[in-house]
Amino acid sequence: MSPRTVKTKPLPPPKRRAADVAYDAIEALICTLELQPGSPVVEAEIAERTGLGRTPVREALLRMVSIGLIEPQPRRGLLVSGIDLAGHLDIVATRRVLDQLIAACAARRATTQQREEIVRCAALMHDAAERGRIDDYMRADHELDTISHLASRNLPAVNCVVPLIVQCRRFWYAYQHAGDLMEGARAHLAFAQGISSGNEAAAVAGSNQLMDYLEHFARRIIDQ
C-alpha cells in the first residue's frame, strides 16, 4: 500500500481535562528542547507561556516529576531532567516489550476507522520525512501514538509506556542531526500497517522494526 493513498478523515478529538492539555503543552516545550535539560521550571512562567491556569499547570508538573521528566532540587525548585545517554538503551528495551503488547492488542481490538487513521498518521510521517519537515513529522508521530494506544484498549500498558515515549521523543530531538528521517518513517509505516492488517504477528514485527530503529539510533549517539 502506498502511504499516499490513504484518504480517511481524522477521528474527532475526545474532550480533555485542562491538566491533560497543560501536560501536553509542557511536554512539547521539553521534548522540543524549548526548555533545555537543567533549566528551571517556574509554575507561573509556564502558565503565562502556555496561556493555561496555574492549577492544571501545577498538576501537570507533578505528573512530570513522577515520571522523571522534571526533577525537584533542594533550594533550586524544579529543573528539567538531564538526558542519560547510557540509560536510554534501557528505556528503549523496556519500551520494546510494552510496544509489542500494545501493537498486538491494537491489531486485535482496533476499529476499522482506527486502523485507517493509524495508517493515515504514518503516511503523514512519511510525507513529512520526504519534505524534511521535522515538526510535522513529530506531530504525526504523537498522533499515531495516541490513536494506537486508544485502539489497544490496554490502559495499564499505555500508562507504563507513555513516559518512555516522551523520553524517546526528547532524545530524538536532541540528537536529530544523527538520525535518518526516512528510515524512521518507514519503520513507523511498518508498525502502522502491521496493526491495520489485524495480524498480531505482523503488528509485533512492525513494532520490533520501529524499536530496532530507535535502538540503532541511540547506539550511534552513544558510540560517538
Automatic annotation (TrEMBL):
HTH gntR-type domain mapped to chain residues: 16-83
InterPro entries cross-referenced by the UniProt entry: GntR_C, TF_FadR/GntR_C, Tscrpt_reg_HTH_GntR, WH-like_DNA-bd_sf, WH_DNA-bd_sf
Pfam families in UniProt: FCD (PF07729), GntR (PF00392)
This protein's UniProt keywords: DNA-binding, Transcription, Transcription regulation
Domain of life: Bacteria
A Gene Ontology molecular function term of the record: DNA binding
Cross-referenced PANTHER family: GNTR FAMILY REGULATORY PROTEIN, TRANSCRIPTIONAL REGULATOR, GNTR FAMILY
Name used for this protein in its record: DNA-binding GntR family transcriptional regulator
Originating organism: Comamonas odontotermitis
